[in-house]
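HUMAN: Ready with one sample?

ASSISTANT:
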Amino acid sequence: MDSVEPKFLLIDEHDQVLGVCLDAEGLFVEPTESDEELTVEILGCLLAQRLRDYLEGSKRYRQRNALDSLWLRMLDAAGEPLVDFWAGDIIDWRSSRLDPERVDLVALWGLDSPLASARDVWECWRSARPDQPNQWAVYGPEGRRAWLTIVGRSRFQRAEGSDRPPGCVYHLDGTHVTDEAAFFLAIGEAINGPGGYFGWNLSALDDCLWGRFGARTPFTLIWSNSQVARKSLARTLEEAVDAPSFFEAIQTIFAEHDVDVVLR
């Protein structure tokens, strides 16, 4: 069992490791309107002394030494951090069914947990981070939104503090920009490479263009196959007759930040 690589870490609000865990059940949830509380079972955990003391302590001890915030950190196949999920209170714990030297924990769940329908996307990222552009293109709109969620929450690709200088030229492959999530995936890869982040909605795109996300304006963006997005991103943002489309709103944001967009 010692040779099995952990898939998760339990961490506190100060990024201190409280447990090293082999797996989790109930991580992916089905959408529900029920008020029933969801739980996740975190399996095969080697606990830091602080967490063990907390679990074994009296009610008074736990009140005095409260765990203010508990996070479940998903690791990729290389053991590197992928995404952190907020976990609620631990409501049960027992000797692990995977290894008697470890424990299984049950915690409240569901606040920001991934959907069951997106399991394939998450497992794709966990098994191997993107190393080629457009790996997301095989998914439909829902899968692309899940991919964008991972991109936005993954620490590894976020380029804060490492902008390339003004005047650079970036190439956006518009071949697969058939929905709004696809645009943000394509611009993220144009700026920061496969799996890269550069906004997840129009406001976030505007924020990224102020800097600290990989590129400093002014720069040039060469957008190939732009006719795909012009047709697909035609949703208007307001009800007025002359309201801009999503595609036009993108161009306005770029223009406001002195980005020269070359549509091809």
